[in-house]
Amino acid sequence: MGLATGALLLAACGTTGSGADGEVLVSAAASLTDAFSEMEAAFEAVNPETDVLLNSGGSSALREQILAGAPADVFASANMSNMDQVVAAGEVEGEPTIFARNRLDIAVPSGNPGGVTGLADFARDELLIGLCAEDIPCGDYGRQVLEKAHVIPAVDTDEPNVRALLSKIEAGELDAGIVYVTDVASTDGGVGGVRIPDDENVLADYPIASLANAPNADGAAAFVAFVLSDAGRSILADHGFALP
Length: 244
Prior knowledge:
The protein is of the alpha/beta class. It has two domains: 3-101 and 204-238, Periplasmic binding protein-like II (D-Maltodextrin-Binding Protein, domain 2); 103-195, D-Maltodextrin-Binding Protein, domain 2 (3-Layer(aba) Sandwich), CATH 3.40.190.10. The chain has nine helices and nine strands.
C-alpha cells in the first residue's frame, strides 16, 4: 500500500475500524484481482478481527455460484447484466452501486511479434487470437468493440476469464487479445497495449452489492462501505480504474 493510500485509509476509517469481524467472503470479477487484493489487506489492517476471503473469477461464473447457493457476502461484477440476474433472483441486499469503470485495450506479448496495430488485425488468419468467452463481461465487451469496428475476428481460443486470457498473451501463446486497460497495466510491461479508439471502445461499469443471504451481513456491509470510501477509491484509481 502506498503512503497516499495509507493516509487516506487512516483518514477514512480511523484506527478502530468498522467493528466488523469474522470471515468476509468476497466474490469479485477477475479484472479486480489486484485492486481487491490490496483492498483486502487495507480493510484487514483497520479491521484486525476480520479475514477477507477473495474469490476471483469470471462474473458469470461467480453469478452462477451465488444463484446455486454458494456462500458469499459480497458480489462485485464487471458488468450490470450479471448483477441484474442476481438482483432478479432476490439475492441482493439493497441496491447495487457502481463503484468503478474500465475500458478495453488490445493486449500483445512483449515486443508485439505479430505486428498488431489495431482491431483490424484480429481478422488475420495467420495470427493466434484470443478473446474471453461469450457471456463473460470481457468477452461480451470485446465482441462489441469488434462489431463497432466492423471486424469479424479469427478467434483461436475463448478463455474463461480475463486473467486466463492475459496469462496466455504474456506467455507468448497468443499474438493478441482484448482485455481491460487495467489488466495490461497490471503486468508492469510484461504485456504491451495497443489503444482502441474511443469511438470503437466501450465503458464497463462495475457494480458491487452485499448479498441477501450473506453469512456475515455486518462484514459485507463494512467491506462494501470500504470499497466506496475515499481509501477504497484511491486503491482503485492506483490500479487504473476510472471512478464514477
